[in-house]
Every structure is written in structure tokens, then in C-alpha cells.
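Project outcomes to date are best conveyed with an example. Our students and postdoctoral researchers have been running inverse folding experiments weekly, and each run begins with a structure described purely in C-alpha cells. The record below, which covers 365 residues, was selected by the lab manager from last quarter's runs and is presented without edits.
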């Protein structure tokens, strides 16, 4: 056991430092939950129909009897859906009743009006992603899934190579910047790219914070590393519970504003506050030790001990004694040999993989 791990094992009960860390980590996790589930709102498809050509003040809600008459003359009634057609209009018509053509051929409409009773605008209404363009919404979800795949893979690799804090800083800046400009996309294709990059950054933020806190050999989580062993499960549960606040806030934002780009913008700006974590959150001691920077790791853990009122000298001596007694092999080979030595771990790992797949299917399918 290296000195940093030994010192971490004798730091004792969780104290003010751990509570502060847990509180700080809650903000980005909440905002990640906000960004993940706000797609339900910004990609929402309101009730809609073809707009009446030439009628500038046309609206989904019938304004009066004359407005209803114009709609009936221009838009066919869909018996299947029991409402006016969403994608077709009559080929030839005129607002003068006597000139209304008797030929009732239909053509694809090029403009639409939307029901604004629930949301005033969504990404769908901005770019008219209905009828022939309805598949674009699936493309945006595809961008999210690709982003999660890339982000999940790259985060662990980059965090192990460059450290947790640099990747964390880059990710929160990416969420703030890309998230902000995503509120003003010039086209749906550009928004696809924005969405892809944003999800990559958001995934990195989520896993970086866990990586800076877990105590597992495979760098997957961050908050739990500084927690005392008896509180690690509780800390992990609390972090996931804070994620749920994100969707609740996105719903409240939609109720208050009803405008999709407001929802998008509010999901991004709070990430700017996380830039201050560069000075507030220490680097992972386990990563420092893995890079041979044991003195820096010891310094971090001594600060933790000092913040919690623990006798630093005594803890340091205990760590040195344990280090002399036990030196562990680290890295991928150690994890591989550990799995071979304990096949039951492989079974448990596969069960966790299956459970996670089921959760993802239920959430995103």
C-alpha cells in the first residue's frame, strides 16, 4: 500500500471536508440531469397543422367563424386522426369563396402552425421538424447516444492520462460554451453537431466528478475517494439522488418560460460556476500516486486531515509504517489477475453490466 492510500485509510470518519466536497459536486450533477432530460421538452412535438397560405395571423386555435371557414377551404380533414391534416393541403384554393376550385387534389404543405398552449416554442417548431423532417428528431437523439459512447470511453482514458481536474475544467467550460451557443443554432444540422459535443462534455463532467471521488481500481467515480469507507455507498446514492433534481428544474423552467432556448440556456450558464472548482477541489490522490507524485498526494490528504481536525503527524507516521509492510501492484494487470483469482467478481460485473443496460433501455428507449 502506498503512503497516500495508507494515510487515506487512517484519516478516520468523514468530516467537514467530505460534506463540503459532496455539496460542491452536487451542482454539476444536477445540471447534467437537467441537460439529459430537457430533451423531452425542447424536442417536444406540439399539435400542429398546415398553415393557411397568405393568412399572416393564422394560428392553431380557431379564432372565429371566418377563420374556421378558411381553414376548411385550405386544409383537408383527416378522418384517421380526427383533426385537420398535418402534412397536406389542397393544391388550389382562393380566399374568395366563388373562386374555390372544385378540384380537391392535395399537396405537401411548406409551413405550419403549432399549438402554443403548453410550450410557446420548441426546437421542432423553430425548424419545422415535422412530416418529412420528423426523422431529424431521432437524429438528435442519435447524436446524444453517440456522444455518451464517446464521452464514456474518452473520459476514463483522458482522466488517467492528464488527471481529473484538467479534464473536469475542460468539460465544464465545454458544457457552458457549447450549451449556450446551442440555444441559437443557425440550422438543424449545426444543432446536431452542437448536441454531439455537448453530450460528450456533459458525460465527461458526470464521470469526472465520480472519478475524483471513488476508491475503485478502475477510475470511474471521484466523490467517493475522499469519503470514509463506511459512507461511500451513502455518498454515491446521494450523488445520484441530486441528479433527479435536474429534470425537476427543467420542468419548472419549461412551466415558467415555455420557450425552448430559455430551457437550453439555463442548462448551460451554471456550469460557469464550476470553473472555480479548479481552486476548490483537490486532485485525486490515487491519480497523483499512479503518476509517481506521491508527495503531492500526501499533501492533499494532509489538507483533508487538517480540515477534519485529525492529528496529521500521527496519521502520516501510520501511513509510512503501513507502506513499509505492504506494497501492492497497480494497474490493468493487477485488475486482470484479481478477476482471474476471484471468478465471482466476473459474474458480479456481468450482472451489473446487464442491470445498467436495462436501466438505459428503460430511460432512453
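After processing, the design step wrote out the following sequence:
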Amino acid at each position: 500500500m502506498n503512503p497516500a492510500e495508507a494515510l487515506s485509510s487512517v484519516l478516520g470518519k468523514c468530516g467537514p471536508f467530505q460534506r463540503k466536497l459532496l455539496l460542491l459536486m452536487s451542482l454539476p450533477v444536477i445540471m447534467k440531469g437537467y441537460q439529459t432530460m430537457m430533451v423531452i421538452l425542447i424536442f417536444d412535438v406540439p399539435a400542429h397543422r398546415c398553415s393557411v397560405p397568405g393568412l399572416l395571423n393564422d394560428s392553431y386555435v380557431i379564432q372565429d367563424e371566418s377563420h374556421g371557414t378558411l381553414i376548411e377551404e385550405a386544409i383537408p380533414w383527416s378522418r384517421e386522426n380526427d383533426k385537420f391534416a398535418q402534412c397536406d393541403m389542397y393544391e388550389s384554393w382562393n380566399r374568395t369563396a366563388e373562386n374555390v376550385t372544385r378540384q380537391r387534389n392535395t399537396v405537401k404543405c411548406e409551413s405550419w402552425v403549432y399549438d402554443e398552449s403548453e410550450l410557446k416554442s420548441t426546437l421542432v417548431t423553430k425548424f419545422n421538424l415535422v412530416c418529412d423532417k420528423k426523422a431529424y428528431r431521432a437524429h438528435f437523439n442519435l447524436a446524444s447516444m453517440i456522444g455518451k459512447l464517446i464521452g464514456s470511453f474518452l473520459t476514463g482514458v483522458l482522466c488517467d492520462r492528464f488527471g481529473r481536474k484538467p479534464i473536469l475544467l475542460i468539460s465544464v467550460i465545454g458544457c457552458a460554451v457549447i450549451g449556450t451557443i446551442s440555444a441559437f443554432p443557425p440550422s438543424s444540422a449545426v444543432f446536431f453537431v452542437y448536441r454531439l459535443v455537448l453530450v460528450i462534455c456533459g458525460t465527461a463532467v458526470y464521470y469526472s466528478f465520480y472519478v475524483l471521488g471513488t476508491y475503485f481500481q478502475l477510475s470511474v467515480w471521484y466523490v467517493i475517494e475522499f469519503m470514509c469507507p463506511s459512507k461511500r455507498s451513502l455518498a454515491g446514492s446521494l450523488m445520484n439522488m441530486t441528479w433527479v433534481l435536474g429534470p425537476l428544474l427543467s420542468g419548472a423552467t419549461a412551466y415558467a418560460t415555455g420557450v425552448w432556448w430559455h430551457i437550453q440556456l439555463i442548462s448551460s450558464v451554471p456550469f460557469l460556476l464550476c470553473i472555480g472548482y479548479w481552486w476548490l477541489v483537490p486532485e485525486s490522490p490515487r491519480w497523483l500516486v499512479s503518476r509517481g507524485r506521491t508527495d503531492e498526494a500526501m499533501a492533499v490528504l494532509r489538507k483533508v486531515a487538517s480540515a477534519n481536525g485529525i492529528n496529521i503527524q500521527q496519521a502520516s507516521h501510520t501511513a509510512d509504517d503501513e507502506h513499509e509492510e505492504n506494497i501492492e501492484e497497480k494497474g490493468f494487470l493487477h485488475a486482470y489477475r484479481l478477476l482471474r483469482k476471484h471468478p465471482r467478481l466476473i459474474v458480479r460485473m456481468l450482472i451489473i453490466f446487464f442491470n445498467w443496460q436495462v436501466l438505459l433501455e428503460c430511460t432512453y428507449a
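The CA atoms of residues 77 and 249 lie 39 Å apart. Confidence is low (pLDDT under 50) at residues 96-101, 210-220, 318-329. The training component of this project remains on track.
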